[in-house]
Amino acid sequence: MSGGCPFDPSRRGFLGASAGLIAAAGALRPAAATEQAPSGLEPFYGRHQGGITTPQQAHTYVAAFDVTSTSRADFKALLARWTAAAARLCAGQPADPTDSGDTLGMPPARLTLNFGFGPTLFMKDGQDRFGLAAQRPPALAELPVFVGDKIEPARSFGDLSIQACADDPQTAFHAVRQLARLAYDVATPRWVQAGFVPQPVAQTPRNLMGFRDGTNNPCPANEAEMNEVVWVGAEGPAWMQGGTYAVFRRIRIALEHWDRTPVSFQEQTMGRTKAVGAPIGAKAEHDAENLAAVDADGNPIIAENAHVRLASAVTAGARIFRRGYSYNDGLSFTAERWPPWRQAMEYDAGLLFVAYQKDPRAQFTKIFDRMAKFDMLNQFTTHTASALFAIPPGVREGQAIGDMLI
Ligand code: HEM
Predict the structure, then answer these.
(1) Is residue 1 part of a domain?
(2) Is residue 292 included in any domain, yes or no?
(3) pTM exceeding 0.90
(4) Which of 259, 273, 308, 381 to probe ligand 1 with, by most ligand atoms within 8 A of CB?
(5) Helices (H) and strands (E) in the chain, counts
(6) Which of 106, 194, 254, 355 would bridge 320 by S-S if both were Cys, CB 3.0 to 4.6 A apart?
């Protein structure tokens, strides 16, 4: 595999927030958001929902909801309320007249919002609450339980998802908080997860393990590649065409263990160098991975169980578009899985892995099934939460998200 998607700093949208300030002052009409996005403002309306191929913002706030009402009309009305409020929020305006006001006067910080539908929306405990069971796409099959999974149900699954991304953490939280208020009596939050990546700099962001993460990713600017990997096409139901499926995995990383591991072993584990991010045996970050190369003794230069070997399209036979965030949720009591098996308060921090694809069965699951069994990285990682959502296509003004489904 070679190439990936060379990092383009202009895609990180750090050319100033002046347009955002104008929007916050109310000078920008929502309709302008359908046009080309000036810095600080990302369009809400469009063929696809935002925050998927949008140049990655520095912060995310993800929330999953359980629908508590059993009324189809309530659910439909909620989607209409959410869509209208989301369009205003992304344009830098209050969600509605009763907005909490905690971002008043702040630039929109490239806020994007996208909405998703979980498998349980279509069938939960044998109940088809909203008469949607027949429209459930086969690709929205529950993810299997993978080797090593330690999934906490209270942090996983959900009927609906909202992902806010913004260059400011309060802006992302604010948006989800307003939308949760608008769901009162219809849907209730089930889990939330905040995440971050380093502030815009002219390089691929580093995760908490210190490695560049996102090097070998399909390129959002390459439409053909996005259609091949991410966007549902004619193979999917009409209501999903132009949409995608999001897999969320909350992956705790044993940072205490990692930080005491020599860099040479870290690099073997990953299959890339730490400082540069080059494939082992190559020089530059975007050099091709030579998976066939062997040393003088005939051993592969990139180890058989290195993360990038198992993850590579050549080995796995599938690709995904990753757009993950680091998370840092303080400490929790942990029994170490490595000598001398200390029991102590340790970081509950790691990766909020987010992957988009047109069919998780043939993409995430296909790649991760093997990785879960063999990846060297597994000795440092534990998947503690999991969720899958169908992310329908974007909308035009006047339409509501999921209109074509319900
Ligand atoms: C804490 C967990 C993880 C960490 C820290 C991590 C980190 C990395 C790093 C540093 C790279 C190399 C740079 C790059 O191309 O982005 C990489 C590549 C990759 N990772 Fe992960 N990863 C994790 C979990 C996963 C999982 C669960 C999957 C699921 C399928 C995955 C799929 C991939 C893929 C497809 C690549 C590109 C491989 C290639 O073609 O070179 N990763 N990851």
Answers:
(1) no
(2) yes
(3) yes
(4) 308
(5) 10, 9
(6) 355
